[in-house]
Each structure stands twice: as structure tokens, then as C-alpha cells.
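Case study: NurA domain-containing protein.
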Amino acid sequence: MTVTSLPTTGLSIDPWDPGYGAAVSAEALSEIDARSSAELDLDRESPAEQWRPLSPADGAAAPEVLLVADGVRRIDARVWVHDHEAAMSAPGIAASYAAGVVRCTPGGPATLAAADVRRAVFSPSPATPTVHTPHGSYPARVTADATMEQLSLALQQQLTELEIALATACRADHDGQDLLLVDGPLRGRSHLPRTIGYIKTHHTAYLPPPQAAVVTALRPGQRTPVFLMGTSWRRHAWYLRLPGTHTTHWSGIARCEAGADLTITEVTALADATALVLPTLAGVDYKDPRAPQNLVPIGGLEKHLRHRLGDPRLLYRALRSAAT
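Here is what the predicted structure looks like once written out:
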């Protein structure tokens, strides 16, 4: 996909396919009064007034092994669980989810290290049954309530637990020389050592205008200074620009997250490592509609995992048949 710019009108075209929304939302670029209420410590690596684009420090090293973990999820059917003894019915979802890990080494091919598919029925009813179909079983998972938010949260928690289990197993033999990158926020995984959360879509403007201007000034392979941010949870963060065709200020910008308990020396080493290795994995627009932020290993893993989920029409028919 070619990115076009129309300088005579001051218009530029967002590089992402419109079916995926935009890499940065309009709300994230609104005025300071509408910005996030997150607590920020902008002086973590350098004083806020001295922020500037940073290149990896002399002596910074890329990891010997980069593990990329990701997961996909899909609702196969909406269900109702009927508790005849209690004369009550509760809504729920039957869902499939899959997680996997890709192993990347410098100069070598990326290889699939692990992948697994799970299914489940989520509902708040204690009477929720395990559903057996010819194409797989859906164990019962009881949720806090029947809202779609809670059903989705329960599904996401199961997916996160599967990602953690696979990643932990894959890195057991690397003797501390690996870096684990998880697609999405680090929440729920910040206890894992040498682990980075990778966020490619920006819904919230966290930085004040002077520091946000440093983000848009980044060149490929450069990052912002590390800062500490706190919302409902605390973590270190920094922005990084990936190589690609950029005609909008936030094109190619990703945000990385690391644990709040790391020392500044530890977190800046991780930040420099991402600036060294992630630009080499940037997606390309003629292959991926979310390039460059959708890294090549992530795009390939997502495609593989979605295939592993199975045919949604076949599973839907199987669930209907099992229900009758």
C-alpha cells in the first residue's frame, strides 16, 4: 500500500488500512485538557526540559534471542445458560483463543517456538456446562457477571495466562540472554523478567506538548527518554519510531513498556535494546496494512494463530448441534 501526501491541501494519508482504524486516534491528539490523567515522572532518564530524540548508547547490545509472544481470540457464538433448578437463564459466550511464541535470532530466520489453541464457555451461571463438539471441547469458565465487559475480560485473562505459560516454557533454556516482547500492554505480565510490552495503536495522549513534540521529531531507530507512568498500574514507558514511509507525525511510532520496579540502568538498557532490534523487524506496507508498527513476527504469528482457531462457521454449527 502506497502512502500519499497532498501538500497543496495540507492533507496526508494515514498509512494504515482504514479497516484497522488509525495508528493514533483523533482523541489522542486533542488539547491538553482532554489528555490522560496518568501520573507521569518525565525526569526518570533525563530532565523533562532536556528531552530530545535518543539513539542507542555506545556499547548497547541487542538481545541474543528475541521471543515475540502474541495471542488471538474469537467469539464463536453467544449463548444462554439455563439453570432449570433456579429457574434462571444467564447470557455468555463460547470462544476460541490461541497464543504462540516466535523465536528471533540475529541473522537467522524467525521460527515458531510454541503455539496452543484453547476454547471455553464464559458465563456467570454456576450451571455453565462444558460443551463437547467433534471439533473440540469448551470447558466452563464462570465470570463475575453477565456484562460483555466481564465476559471479554475473562476471555482475555485466559488468553494472557496461556501466553505467559508458553513464553515461560520457551525461555527456560536461554540462561537470561533473551528479551521477551509481548504484543499489547504489559499489564498482568510486568512480573516477568526482561519483558517488554509493545503498543502499536495510540488511543490516549499521555505526554504534555513539549515532550509530545519530541515523539514526532524522532527518526527511525530513535526513541524518547524513558519515563514512569501510573494509571491503575505503574510502568516505565518510552516511544520509538520504526522505519517506513512517514507522512503523518505519528506514523511508525510505537510505545514500549517495562516494569516499574526496574532500576533506571536496567530499563534504559531494555529501551536501547528495542531501538536496536525492533527497527529490523518493522512491517512493510505492501505486505501488512498496519505497517510498520505491526512487526513481521507479530503479523506472521497472528496469521498462523487465526488459522489454528479453525473455521468459525464449522464451530458455530457444531455448537448449535451440541446445544440441541
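For the exam, be able to explain this: The chain has two domains: 1-64+179-293, 70-173+310-324.
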